[in-house]
Amino acid sequence: MPSATTTVTANPRELYDVIIIGGSYAGLSAALTLYRATHKCLIFDSGIPRNALSTKTRLTSGWEGQDPQKMRDTSKAELEGSGLVDFIPLPVQKAKKNSDGTFEVVDSDCETWRGRKILFSTGVQEIYPELEGYAENYGTSIYYCMFCFGYEQRGSRSAGLIAVGPLAHPGHAITNAQDALKFAKCVTIYTNNNPSLAEELSKKLEGGLRVNDQKLKRLFKEQDSDDISVEFESGEKQSLSFLVHKPDLEVNTALPAQLGVECTPGLGINVIPPFNKTTVDGVYAAGDCCSPLRMIPNALSMGAFAGCGLARELPRVVREIKDQNGATKVNGSVGIAESLFIET
């Protein structure tokens, strides 16, 4: 049976139109699109969003600077009020596709739930480099996106970029360093004992950018200081206003693999835009788990488009739906909706 924390209205005997795995921005946006197309959704939400370290909503009109959890809670309340979206605050452990094309998932309480379609909006897991002090400062002094975090750092004395992992590439390192240079007087690219990368970068430097190829030892903060310091194996130290780095990423669930969904290492689930259908019929994805553009507006957009794609594949179902005044209406007759995909 469902646990005591399971939403009361969720019914394990029901065949939901869409099971949404992941209840943050992309999943909530998809559910909004789907319920407005009169489809019933079940959202599994572990309660740990990918941007859990972020204390402010960024790049989202109307929510700029506000608590991200408030935005998610507001959306959840709106969806629950529709009567067509149920929530279960549990992770999903297993997923399979049945011979009739429907899907079954099993939650962490061992309850089985069924749906016609599945949407993955699970986000990603960040894999930190093996560098002392990185994890403690990621999200507070180490930023992965200057569009999300740069404005608050404007006028900084100096910044650094750690050119390891995804940024150990001349083009990526220079582009992200130039982004940081909008907010700091100078930016040092730390190549961490990678002479060939340092040499290649030195050919592309322009005003305000520099390269340091010393081996990094640790990152730390001095007491009573907002700056972050870099210490090298040589013992030398440098103090900076902030650092930029993008860690390696991986899809934070094994569920896509259980369904045979194709993924690309470092990028996530493979989808076909604009509706974000995966390589398995009936399975869609949206948000950070399938896009390198990891910011709230993109997650909202991808969720909305995935919702459109899913709705066009789903049959029309006769349902009694209450309007804003509490009056009951019937949404239509039984039939299969036309699928009008424009896949590019």
TrEMBL record:
It comes from the Eukaryota. The keyword Secreted does not apply. InterPro entries: FAD/NAD-bd_sf, FAD/NAD-binding_dom, Ferredoxin-NADP_redctase_2. Belongs to the class-II pyridine nucleotide-disulfide oxidoreductase family. Pfam families: Pyr_redox_2 (PF07992). GO terms for biological process: cellular response to toxic substance. This is Thioredoxin reductase. SUPFAM superfamilies: FAD/NAD(P)-binding domain.
